[in-house]
Design a protein that fits this description.
heterodimer; A: alpha+beta; Ubiquitin-like (UB roll); DNA polymerase, domain 1; five-stranded mixed beta sheet; 5 helices; 5 strands; B: about 800 residues; alpha+beta; Aldehyde Oxidoreductase, domain 4; Aldehyde Oxidoreductase, domain 3; seven-stranded mixed beta sheet; about 30% helix; globular
Chain lengths: ~160, ~800
């Protein structure tokens, strides 16, 4: 039997204390143990970004992270993305620009977009495209995604 | 009332749940007491199975059972069915070897399922799967379709001599041969349309449940056509009658054709749940997706185009070898035949066409529909030939096309390869594309790029597609084993809201929005009062699902037909309430009015009267306001377009960047432009993927070398240009909405435009051909191998 560890962390603003298998991935903790299925499994090897979450404000592929490393950190998933007015402006913009098709990659895409907006004061349109390169979308061709994120950040094409 | 009706750019109502992580895809569903399945898969491409020893796996912690091919045989599960039969040139039927749910004595491709381990946890099932010992003796392997028919090639199936599934032809061979011979100019190309791996972002997944009291089997699975799934699995594989079998396709994360077939895993899960009386769940890993989702394309083609001295096309002669993979996938035989060669006229008046297609079995993953399915292969071949002809003749490629277009006044137009084109103005779309792409300014942009040491090129493509499958009677004559209509039910609720049930299925297309727009316009009810239900065989009547860009033209038309029945019944009810004769009742914007008067009843009042029939013509009319319809189209519809791509190639590195991409599409009337443009843009990205990035590569031993997202290059955010998309509108006369399919045009049209642009950029380097994907290495090698002196530098 694998070893267990106790972790203390903040998940979407709420303090959590859990005892978990040391080998559990962050993605499986969220999906299988906490029923937070907004974060998606699509490749399991950090290539597609569908499982992107924010860890202490930085975007991370949760499939590559051990859940044990949540200890002491502030975690935000798509379920916890909110603004004072309700939806995060990024969520609104994706809807308003028609940036969504099947929707499967979008939680990860939106978390990455939120990270880009929060951490890059002088982001350009090209920089934004590069910043979303780790998030694969097979449906949209990305254009409306770029438009949505650019709109929120306030940059011109 | 109908500002959110047909034609409005209504925001998609489904998107709130997607952006908040509340989408419900199959892997998001769980049931109390569910077990988890893991498949033991073949690591060899071709081998005899001597023994499968499950004893260690069975005694591993948490293992409930382990099932093998022997259990499949003992329980008499049927073979996975093929939905389309092809007739050979000589009139015989295609070879149709079976495809067992779990391998029977032999494996024929890497990834084929040999055994299924079911355990209390997912990890437990995976761990135990590694304890299943499969003793095999390897067999020689054949991977390429062009090798499969050679003398001495390894044989896959007893039922398929020389690995051939079929040898098929269409068109007039004698007339085509004669016309080619008489042509002033013949242009020929050898084309490889490479194998692609669809890679929907949601991996396939299934959750099967069996109610031991009622005998009801329920399968939640990631699929595009739940009723077809139920029919095929229930009747052919599981012997499970439809009234005791429910298939639910909830939110589905992309399909692109790869979620149509009734896969072995889905059958196996149903079977296991039925045996155990316990829910069983399985979600494909990405590695399994690469190995077991049906692949796309994989054609090798020789094509010749004849032209007269004025550049008019005289004949097209095509010979293709298609790779079907190791087994017949559900629509595998349809793709390289009736979805392929029937498009060979393109937008042109080529009078003589002949095509022959040999389809082969190989030790590779089975091939089936992938976005466009046959039509991209046809369009790529034809548009490459046309552009090559223009280059060899020194003609403007736009002018050469214009000279050969079917004229706008020639519709309906009968092609030499079976299809009757519905409507179009091909030159009109090309003109619009030329303007939007600023082709006039290209020479200047090319010169400016040259100053920077970059080779700039421009490429065209004028694609056409047959969508809206299909007239069932014609499809049946051509080998379809099912009808291809769509169904709808439009149900007024007593207080005036409407629930619409459709046999289509949305996995990104936005039906919940567009179908509600159709109903809002047709019935004059507020868009917000219409709810769309899809994807559950227990809630919707039998229907055929979503693929081949058919949902709006076939499924949407079924909705219109049901609405028309609602209006017809509403007139009778209104006539009674308004004390007028039925013939005097007019219906407009949701109101039934006595002609020439202001006496009127809103449709919501009519619905209420129908459900609370206190004042109602009960002696002649049933209560209720709920109508069903099936729509079987009289013809396909034929969206078309004009695509122009501009690239810059760095001759030092071969790195190619798409600088501009213009897509003009004519998809008939548009229900929601926001969604149509999104479909085009996403389609273009997939077509660019084939042109520049994607290729499924097998080594000689049948191992898939591109088996992960680290090895198989999907287009990423920085790879896709900003796509300028525009529309022209020529309504389709064969459906009540006047719509044509919009889901695949981008993919079909973009691939040849990109390659034509790259070849235009490289023409000064003596490069006249390149195989896809045109990676930097391939472009660089082409420049090195080109005939131009500067290429040697």
């Amino acid at each position: 039997m694998s070893a267990t560890v106790e972790i203390n962390f903040t998940l979407n603003g709420r303090k959590r204390q859990l005892t978990i298998d040391a080998g559990l991935s962050a993605l499986n903790l969220l999906r299988d143990k906490l029923d937070m299925t907004g974060t998606k499994y699509a490749c399991g090897e950090g290539e597609c970004g569908a499982c992107t979450i924010l860890v202490d404000g930085l975007s991370v592929n949760s499939c590559l992270m051990y859940a044990a490393d949540f200890d002491g950190r502030d975690i935000v998933t798509i379920e916890g993305l909110r603004s004072d007015k309700g939806f995060d402006p990024m969520q609104d913009a994706f809807v308003e620009h028609g940036a969504i098709q099947c929707g499967f990659c979008m939680p990860g895409m939106i978390m990455q977009a939120r990270h880009l907006a929060d951490t890059n004061k002088d982001l350009t349109y090209d920089g934004l495209k590069r910043g979303l390169e780790g998030n694969v979308c097979r449906c949209t061709g990305y254009k409306k995604v770029f438009d949505a994120v650019a709109d929120v950040i306030g940059i011109a094409k | 009332m109908t500002e959110k009706g047909i034609g409005a750019a209504v925001l998609r109502r489904e998107d709130r749940r997607f952006v908040t992580g509340k989408g419900q895809y199959v892997d998001d569903l769980n049931r109390a007491g569910q077990a988890h399945a893991c498949f033991v898969r073949s690591a060899q491409a071709h081998a005899e199975i001597r023994k499968v020893d499950v004893s260690r796996a069975k005694s591993a912690p948490g293992v409930i059972t382990v099932l093998t091919g022997e259990d499949v045989a003992a329980d008499k599960l049927g073979s996975l069915p093929c939905g389309w039969g092809i007739t050979n040139k000589d009139g015989t039927a295609m070879a149709e070897p079976g495809w067992p749910v779990l391998a029977q004595g032999r494996v024929r491709y890497v990834g084929e399922a040999i055994a299924m381990v079911i355990a209390t946890t997912r990890q437990g099932a995976r761990d135990a799967a590694e304890l299943v010992e499969v003793d095999t003796s390897p067999l020689p392997v054949v991977v390429q379709a062009t090798d499969a028919g050679k003398k001495g090639a390894p044989q896959l199936h007893e039922a398929a001599a020389n690995n051939q599934c079929f040898d098929w032809e269409i068109g007039d061979r004698a007339a085509t041969d004669a016309a080619i011979k008489a042509s002033a100019k013949v242009v020929s190309l050898d084309i490889v349309n490479q194998r692609l791996v669809p890679n929907a972002m949601e991996p396939r997944a299934a959750l099967a449940e069996f109610d031991t009291n009622s005998g009801l089997l329920t399968l939640h699975c990631a699929c595009q056509a739940p009723h077809a799934m139920r029919l095929l699995l229930g009747a052919f594989v599981l012997n499970q009658a439809e009234h005791k079998f429910r298939v639910v396709a909830p939110d589905v994360g992309g399909g692109f054709g790869s979620k149509i077939p009734p896969y072995a895993e889905y059958a196996a899960l149903c079977w296991a749940a039925r045996r155990l009386g316990q829910p069983v769940k399985w979600t494909s890993s990405r590695s399994e997706a690469f190995l077991t989702d049906a692949h796309g394309r994989d054609h090798v083609t020789r094509a010749e185009l004849g032209l007269d001295k004025d550049g008019r096309f005289t004949a097209l002669r095509v010979s293709t070898v298609a790779n079907l993979g190791a087994y017949l996938s559900a629509f595998g035989p349809l793709i390289p035949t009736y979805l392929y060669a029937t498009l060979f006229a393109g937008q042109y008046t080529t009078p003589a066409i002949h095509a022959e297609v040999r389809a082969m079995f190989t030790n590779t993953t089975p091939v089936d529909a992938y976005r466009g399915a046959g039509r991209p292969e046809a369009t790529y071949m034809l548009e490459r030939l046309v552009e090559t002809a223009a280059r060899e003749l020194g003609m403007d490629p736009a002018e050469l096309r214009r000279r050969n277009f079917v004229a706008a006044d020639a519709f309906p137009y009968q092609t030499p390869v079976a299809l009757l084109y519905d409507s179009g103005d091909y030159a009109g779309a090309l003109d619009k594309a030329l303007e939007l792409a600023d082709v006039k300014g290209f020479a200047k942009r090319r010169a400016e790029a040259a100053k920077r040491g970059m080779a700039r090129g421009i490429g065209y493509s004028t694609p056409i597609e047959a969508t809206g499958a299909a007239p069932s009677a014609i499809a049946g004559q051509l080998g379809a084993r099912a009808g291809l209509y769509e169904s709808a039910e439009v149900r007024f609720n007593p207080t005036g809201s409407v629930t619409v049930f459709s046999g289509s299925h949305s996995h990104g297309q936005g039906h919940a929005t567009t179908f509600a727009q159709i109903v809002a316009s047709t019935l004059g009810v507020p868009y917000e009062n219409v709810e769309v239900v899809e994807g559950d065989t227990a809630r919707t009547q039998f229907g055929m699902g979503t693929y081949g860009s058919r949902s709006t033209s076939v499924g949407g038309s079924a909705i219109v037909k049901a609405c028309d029945k609602i209006i017809a019944k509403g007139k009778k009810i209104a006539a009674h309430l308004l004390e007028a004769s039925e013939g005097d009742i007019e219906f407009e914007n949701g109101n039934f009015t006595v002609s020439g008067t202001d006496r009127t009843k809103n449709i919501a009042e009519i619905a209420f009267a129908a459900y609370v029939p206190h004042n109602y013509p009960l002696e002649t009319l049933e209560p209720g306001l709920n109508e069903q319809a099936f729509f079987d189209p009289a013809n396909f519809n034929f969206p078309y377009g004009a695509y122009i791509c501009e690239v810059e190639v760095d001759p030092e590195t071969g790195f190619t960047r798409i600088e501009r991409f213009t897509a003009i599409d004519d998809v008939g009337n548009v229900i929601n432009p926001l969604i149509v443009h999104g479909q085009v843009q996403g389609g273009v990205a997939q077509g660019i993927g084939q042109a520049m990035f994607e290729q499924g590569v097998y080594d000689e031993s049948g191992q898939l070398l591109t088996g992960s997202l680290m090895d198989y290059c999907l287009p990423r955010a920085d790879d896709v240009p900003s796509i300028d998309s525009g529309l022209t509108v020529t309504p389709c006369p064969f459906n009540p909405l006047g719509v044509k399919g919009c889901g695949e045009m981008g993919t079909i049209g973009s691939t040849p435009a990109v390659i034509n642009a790259i070849l235009d950029a490289l023409k000064d380097y003596g490069v006249s051909d390149i195989q896809m994907p045109a990676t930097p290495l391939r472009v660089w090698q082409a420049i090195r191998n080109g005939s131009a002196p500067q290429a040697a530098e």
